[in-house]
Amino acid sequence: MKKRLKGTWRAFVILFIVGTLLIQSGCGFKDIDKRIFVLSIGVDHTDNEEKPYRVILKLSVPSGSLKESGAEYTYLIKESESISTAIRLLKTETDKELDFGHAKVILFGEEILHHDYREIMDFFLRRRDIQTVSWVGVGKPSAEDVLTAEPNSEMAGSHALFNYFDQNGVESQLIVTTYLFDFRRRVLEKGIDPILPILMAKENNKRIDLNKSIVVNDKNEVLTLNEKQTAIYNLLTNNIERLDIRVHNEDVNFTVAIDTANVGYQLITEQKKKPIIEMDVEMIGIIQEADMITNPEKLRAYSNATSKTVKKDVLETLTQFQKNEMDPIGFGVRYKATRLPNNKRNQEWQSLYPEVEFKINVNATLKSTGVIE
User: Fold this and answer.
1) pTM of the full predicted structure?
2) Which end of the chain has fewer CB within 10 Å, C or N?
3) What single DSSP character describes residue 156?
4) 5 pLDDT above the threshold of 70
5) Are 195 and 217 in contact (CB under 8 A)?
């Protein structure tokens, strides 16, 4: 009797599972030939108050043969009162489902930074199909100009902008890499300001320049960093180890290739004393170019000259940040993290930062004058 009941129960369970599967609706999966992949997203600000956002999607068009050369792209552009509405409308302009799983670059037009870009950031963070490790940048003068640029070096099925940021293509001291999750942290966190790379399309959209950056604070004020300041920022945040430094004064004139660099600092705040940020910079490199005859016996003198040049550049950059009330390094976050918490730490740092004195210690060691002795 027990065996008969056990067999009946097993049959009932099997029939229930089969019946459940039969009445279930189809899943959300779509074949790859029913999808079109979004490689990058751009958002520009318009002068239309009713439709303030201009959304640009760069789509990859699959090639029929691997032997076909050249990049194949198409673009969808729509103005709307919100980004989600614009994308919903753009879906009606293509016969395939828009797939954002490969959208690894998000560009804001320069004008966006002067408005409430937090609302735009919120959209990208809430969508589960947009990666939080996507790179964020600023298109100048607009995101559309940069996204529609198609450099001659761009290969079919790839995206030139990916190679700028993923460190597998170009490696440069002038490229600032900002991820979406880090951008959000900097926007919401008190004590550190967002910094974004600036991308500019040139030569009839056949070349993209990426050698500057821009800092924006919570007042929507911006500070554009030139090439030297961008390189110094990357150095101070330990984002690079290799960089080139031009040493030029009355006695020497040469270029140093730094192979290893490390930066650390500490905040010194004592009652009734001026706050100090003491920063130590350690560098090791070689001379790679010189407009003079170099002597291996004078490596210590060349090292000292390099140290003075780096110290001067670092001090100028930090002073520029302080003067404009910008803090992309995150000194304010370090201050709050190394003090007992209370509700006034951020206000304390806001009053201390303008009074901070920077003490920079640079130790540059040159190992060689190059292969030419």
Assistant:
1) 0.86
2) N
3) T
4) no
5) no
3-state secondary structure of 224: strand
Among 118, 50, 127, 121, smallest CA distance to 88 is for: 127
* 119-136 tens-digit pLDDT: 888 889 888 888 889 999
22's tokens: 């039969």
CA 279/CA 281 separation, integer angstroms: 7
Return the structure tokens found at 200. 């500019």
By C-alpha distance, which of 251, 232, 253, 202 is closest to 313? 232
Measured CA to CA, the distance from residue 42 to residue 58 in angstroms comes to 8
What is the crossing angle of helices 118-126 and 180-188, to 10°? 130
Q: Within the chain, where are the H helices? A: 2-23, 83-90, 118-126, 143-147, 160-165, 180-188, 227-236, 299-323, 331-337, 345-352
Whether 263 contacts 252, CB under 8 Å:
no
Q: Which domains does the chain have, with CATH numbers?
A: 32-225 (no CATH), 229-373 (3.30.300.210)
Tell me how far CA of residue 298 lies from CA of 235, 277, 281, 295, in angstroms: 26, 32, 22, 5
- Residue 280: CB atoms within 10 A of its CB come to 14
Q: What are phi and psi of 328, to 5 degrees?
A: -75, -15
Query: DSSP secondary-structure letter at 182?
Result: H
- SS3 state at 94: coil
Q: Are 137 and 208 in contact (CB under 8 A)?
A: no
**Residues 71/61, Cβ–Cβ less than 8 Å:** no
Q: What is the pLDDT of residue 170?
A: 76
